[in-house]
Specification:
alpha/beta; Helicase, Ruva Protein, domain 3; five-stranded parallel β-sheet; about 10% strand
Length: about 325
């Protein structure tokens, strides 16, 4: 069975002129565009919300400059992988580009392993993160990188992407999509191009055409997407509902429920530091002087999670959650 390339991948721009958004960086006088055109590219970190084109921009840069391009994901790569890429890059005639997605998930030791290669110019590092790099990237590495902020896509930019998606679907399948209303699509996307394209692809695959045409309006969009999208959205209401249930479980001394909600978050790719930070707050607010060791353990948990990252930190988070859930409680410090 032939693999079907996702629509978002089919629509990925191949050059700067086709790239949508980030005019402050890629406009005619944008600082990043000038750096690309002059081939004077510093190591850099792209900081912005999901789906604004961080990975695409890194790929476009590598193609424009005709440089070797390596990519690693901080979720499933370790120090060994970094060293292997650096060893390979040493053999190249030109400086290679190393793109690390979700670099904020790299532990301190993993980030340390990049320092020498970045400083010596063996690789030009491009990191992508949804978190503030001032807090998540070690200072020695951050000082060697230029931070570029990527903004959420605006309505005009999202409509450009919608039109491209409609045209591509018509071109590849012959199905005609008529966008009668797009407010629901805009709301669902939240400025995330990938989420927008995925929503259009879902609608095109589910909706029944009439005379070869699918009419997309707000009602049909909401109905179809609610039936098909994941139940856990890190940026939506479900995100806050689940972290709230997690905190209430520990506050209510229910370790089984706490581990259940923790597992839901981990399975959905929640940032482990976000979870550890909330447990640190709970240890002070809800346990306090009833068990001062809880704050010490929660702080140690946060530090250990920062150093290890996924997947090892799952056990650390679970251990801390169970300890806090079974600890004596006192909110006297919070209420004082």
């Amino acid at each position: 069975m032939q693999q079907q390339i996702p629509l978002a991948e089919q629509l990925r721009p191949a050059n700067v002129n086709d790239y949508v958004g980030q005019e402050h960086l890629l406009g005619p006088k944008g600082i990043l565009r000038l750096a690309i055109e002059s081939d004077n590219l510093p190591s850099m970190i792209f900081w912005g919300p999901p789906g604004v084109g961080k990975t695409t921009l890194a790929y476009i840069i590598s193609q424009k400059l005709s440089r070797p391009f390596y990519t690693l994901s901080a979720i499933n790569s370790g120090v060994k992988d970094v060293r292997e890429v650096i060893a390979s890059a040493r053999e190249m005639e030109t400086t290679a580009i190393l793109f690390i997605d979700e670099i904020h998930r790299f532990s301190k030791s993993q980030q340390d392993s990049l320092l020498g290669a970045v400083e010596k110019g063996i690789v030009t590092l491009i990191g992508a993160t949804t978190e503030n790099p001032s807090f998540e990237v070690i200072s020695p590495l951050l000082s060697r990188c230029q931070v570029y902020i990527l903004n959420p896509l605006g309505e005009a930019e999202l409509r450009t992407i919608i039109q491209r998606a409609v045209n591509k679907i018509s071109e590849t399948s012959g199905l005609k999509l008529l966008i009668k209303e797009d407010e629901s699509l805009m709301r669902i996307s939240g400025g995330d191009a990938r989420k927008l394209i995925n929503a259009i692809e879902i609608i095109a695959g589910v909706a029944k055409p009439v005379n070869g045409e699918v009419v997309i309006d707000n009602a049909s969009t909401t109905r179809i997407i609610q039936q098909n999208l994941s139940k856990y959205d890190k940026k939506g209401e479900m995100h806050y509902d689940i972290i709230s249930a997690f905190i209430k479980s520990m506050r209510g001394s229910d370790p089984n429920a706490a581990v259940y909600w923790l597992a839901r978050m981990i399975e959905s790719g929640e940032d482990p530091l976000f979870i550890a930070r909330r447990m640190l707050i709970l240890a002070a607010e809800d346990i306090g002087n009833a068990n001062p060791n809880a704050l010490l353990l929660a702080n140690a948990c946060f530090d250990a999670v920062h150093k290890t990252g996924y997947p090892e930190c799952r056990i650390i988070l679970s251990q801390c959650a169970v300890y806090l859930a079974t600890s004596a409680k006192s909110n006297a410090s919070y209420m004082a």
